Amino acid sequence: MPKSRTVFVRQWENSGGLLAFVRLPRVSENFRENLRKMNELTRLPDLFTYLPPSSVLYIPVSVQKAAGVFGRTEVIDNTLNPDFVRKYILDYFFEEKQNLRFDVYDIDSKSPDLAKHDFLGQVFCTLGEIVGSPASRLEKPLGGIPGKKCGTVILSAEELGNCRDYATMQFCANKLDKKDFFGKSDPFMVFYRSNEDGTFTICHKTEVVKNTLNPVWEPFSIPVRALCNGDYDRTIKVELYDWDRDGSHDFIGEFTTSFKELCRGQNQLNVYEVINLLGPFFPSQVSLLSFMTLTSLFLKGNPSQSTSLHYMNPYQMNAYAMALKAVGEIIQDYDSDKMFPALGFGAKLPPDWRVSHEFPLNGNVDNPYCNGMEGILEAYHQSLKTVQLYGPTNFAPVVNHVARYAAAVQDGSQYFVLLIITDGVISDMAQTKEAIVNAAKLPMSIIIVGVGQAEFDAMVELDGDDVRISSRGKVAERDIVQFVPFRDYMDRTGNHVLSMARLAKDVLAEIPDQLISYMKSRAIKPNPVPVYSPSDEPPTNPV
């Protein structure tokens, strides 16, 4: 069955327009209506000011039914060239023709009824037109008003990365250029993400801070994929303006950075000089006051809250603990000493609170081993009290960690099974695929149990049941990954024992064949069965 890609769409803020839900085989596209060029929009509806345009996107449910409103952009006041911030995510399927319609309006009041606003024009296209255009950027003239030029609309799209992180940050500035004749400036910031074709797309605007040259803006949160699509080295451009009521905002200056640089947090490296090449030089600066990324914390939540997948309920185990216990209690019978190394990933560790993707749950770097399943569960619960769940979530370090153990013992005397329990978010897909391909030639298997309601497309790809996983043109020697979503095994009656039994049965089903396939590939034969001798029995005392 074809899998969908996700797409960002940027729209205008009124209602109106036809849109067909698009789908493409396994293509997740980031559709954004980058409706910038509307330089020919009419001024007639508003006699003394520029119009605040807004647009509406419609999706036709069927040929017979009327189109449904998919969404509206924000309203931008007093401009003929709006650049909208709001984006929309759509499923995109290649084999379907998906019709879109964008209607543009001049907003005259707060009424949601579009009939009470001035219609400026509309654009019809398909999702395929946008994706198939050079650099996925489509420019079309607005129509819908006979005999009148209504302006131009630009629509752009980009494939969404797997990154699910959120970033929260706050900025301040010092000694900005004074742009107002009476009083000081009213500064605000505009953030742009760079596109693959070298252009920039607006992704965030701060609030306006009135009458100051030393503003402190409010903290704001933004998805990392909206800021850089998960590419931490991608350029982020920030422009500063002095707000004017008539919409002709005065350019103060700009600077560039990247998500990787912002991750350094508040320090001298995140103090930026504001540059205006078009005007006189003023020694002004913008500083990062605070920065925080949220991946595991945002998606899994605070373990003390019932909404978290890691919630420590005093009366029952959470999904992580149930999956661990279900699989571990069976597989531990095949380990002689019942001592297991247990690692966590995606958290900040005390005392310096650096992010780690490979840390011992028991806190002992020199000896990460736990005694049986009870020891692992105890270490897991203790770690939730001491670490801060954080992102990004990387699998490769843990896979490589176990692979180093397996690489040291390839004579068939030991076989390693790595159990990964995850909510489905993975930030290092390419590195993880490479790690699995390399591990496929070693005596090891990987079990992945997905918990929660997230989409597990990435995990299904790692499983490799349909298509053997590959990296850099190299195909994995064996299929060593087994993935199952825990939600498929939850008993409707709430019988957790039954759920755990079902999960363990399916998740461990492939391990024997994987073990045998490794032994056969290395021509390793089992040791001869020891010959039984009555003398081997310990003496017994007659009753």
Automatic annotation (TrEMBL):
<dbReference type="GO" id="GO:0005886">
    <property type="term" value="C:plasma membrane"/>
</dbReference>
<dbReference type="InterPro" id="IPR002035">
    <property type="entry name" value="VWF_A"/>
</dbReference>
<dbReference type="Pfam" id="PF07002">
    <property type="entry name" value="Copine"/>
</dbReference>
<dbReference type="GO" id="GO:0071277">
    <property type="term" value="P:cellular response to calcium ion"/>
</dbReference>
<dbReference type="GO" id="GO:0005544">
    <property type="term" value="F:calcium-dependent phospholipid binding"/>
</dbReference>
<dbReference type="Pfam" id="PF00168">
    <property type="entry name" value="C2"/>
</dbReference>
<protein>
    <submittedName>
        <fullName>Copine Va</fullName>
    </submittedName>
</protein>
<dbReference type="GO" id="GO:0046872">
    <property type="term" value="F:metal ion binding"/>
</dbReference>
<dbReference type="InterPro" id="IPR010734">
    <property type="entry name" value="Copine_C"/>
</dbReference>
<comment type="similarity">
    <text>Belongs to the copine family.</text>
</comment>
<feature type="domain" description="C2">
    <location>
        <begin position="15"/>
        <end position="142"/>
    </location>
</feature>
<dbReference type="InterPro" id="IPR037768">
    <property type="entry name" value="C2B_Copine"/>
</dbReference>
<dbReference type="InterPro" id="IPR036465">
    <property type="entry name" value="vWFA_dom_sf"/>
</dbReference>
<dbReference type="InterPro" id="IPR000008">
    <property type="entry name" value="C2_dom"/>
</dbReference>
<dbReference type="InterPro" id="IPR045052">
    <property type="entry name" value="Copine"/>
</dbReference>
<keyword id="KW-0677">Repeat</keyword>
<keyword id="KW-0479">Metal-binding</keyword>
<keyword id="KW-0106">Calcium</keyword>
<feature type="domain" description="C2">
    <location>
        <begin position="149"/>
        <end position="272"/>
    </location>
</feature>
<dbReference type="InterPro" id="IPR035892">
    <property type="entry name" value="C2_domain_sf"/>
</dbReference>
